[in-house]
Design goal:
329 residues, 48% helix, 3 domains, 12 helices, single chain, globular, disordered N terminus, two-stranded antiparallel sheet
């Protein structure tokens, strides 16, 4: 009887893992379609509005087809690159003047092309990442700590000198353990790493938040770690919701596709894609471990999308960052 019970448990575990992999593959297939599908086949204007449209605001002036995603923007400097032309050609051929009040994209790929962020005096993320990796390779803790602080400045996070993430950097530097801690975090977050446990990312030795996720991504020389903050999480929640809405038998949000959204500084509702059927939690209400587990799941999705389509993880991250600014405008 005992042998039979063990065999059943092994079979049940195998079936559960197969289900997880199949669900992930289905979600990646969904992302691949959203990445490059032409807007006319996805969102023609004459289709009935679906319940809780991605952005239930007026279609931007000049649209022949409803964009895949769009929302109103502000006068903040972060939109300067977009308003002056962006980094890609809009496939919908909207009027240039519409850029002053609205951001849009025709697909996830175009969301990545329409990336817009304030140019930082502290350098680019690519240059800061290179500096951090050089310092880590040379075991130069002081330089590594300095670059970590500059990465937080670049991201506009942990602005106060007494912020807990800055304290963590300084404490790790003083103990001489910063480089080891960064390497440990990167190792844990790899797509092929073992599932994280309560002993990892306990919030003290390895905190996971909107500040440290940028540092961990910068420290990863394999470029397999996304910056998993509340804005990227909001976009993933939205995509998971829309994926589940397409399933023949809609289900509750499964653990393997569980992500978290982070509130906008002044308008919390902009980042919450939840519906009565599909509920997602605020990233600020979960532990460092839960954030790290969601980050690892995001890295698995990015790796599988890259294997299927060739889309680089950093391009996916840029697309998610832009979509996640407002998922319920």
């Amino acid at each position: 009887m005992q042998r039979f019970e063990v065999d059943c448990n092994v079979r049940r575990h195998a079936n559960s893992w197969e289900r997880i992999l199949n669900l992930l593959d289905d979600f990646v297939d969904f992302l691949a379609k959203q990445w490059s599908e032409s807007p006319d086949s996805l969102h023609p204007l004459d289709i009935p509005d679906i319940e809780r449209m991605i952005a239930p605001v007026g279609v931007p002036t000049g649209c022949t087809y409803r964009p895949w995603h769009w929302y109103p923007i502000t006068s903040h400097a972060c939109w300067k690159a977009w308003k002056t032309g962006g980094q890609g050609t809009c496939s919908l051929e909207l009027q240039r003047s519409a850029r002053d009040s609205t951001w849009w994209c025709a697909s996830l790929e175009e969301a990545s092309q329409h990336y817009s962020w304030t140019r930082s005096p502290h350098g680019t993320f690519v240059s800061l990442s290179a500096e951090l990796r050089v310092a880590m390779k040379a075991s130069n803790v002081q330089v590594a700590a300095s670059v970590c602080h500059r990465i937080l400045d670049w991201g506009g996070v942990a602005r106060r000198a007494d912020n807990a993430s800055r304290h963590w950097i300084n404490d790790q530097e003083s103990a001489g353990s910063l480089i080891r801690a960064l390497g440990c975090a990167v190792s844990h977050l790899q797509p092929q790493a073992a599932r994280l446990s309560r002993f990892d990312f306990n919030g003290i030795d390895l905190p996971m938040n909107s500040a440290t996720t940028k540092i961990f991504a910068a420290a990863d020389s394999s470029n397999a770690t996304l910056i998993f903050d509340g804005r990227v999480g909001a976009a993933l929640c939205l995509l998971v919701r829309r994926f589940l809405e397409t399933r023949p038998s809609p289900m509750l949000v499964p653990l393997e596709l569980l992500f978290y959204w982070g509130p906008h500084a002044t308008k919390q509702a902009l980042r919450n894609p939840s519906t009565p059927q599909f509920s997602f939690r605020d990233i600020n209400q979960v532990t460092s471990l839960a954030r790290a587990q969601a980050s690892q799941r995001a890295n698995i999705v990015a790796q599988r999308l890259h294997a299927k389509t060739g889309v680089a993880p950093d391009n996916l991250e840029r697309a998610l960052f832009m979509v996640g600014y407002s998922v319920n405008a």
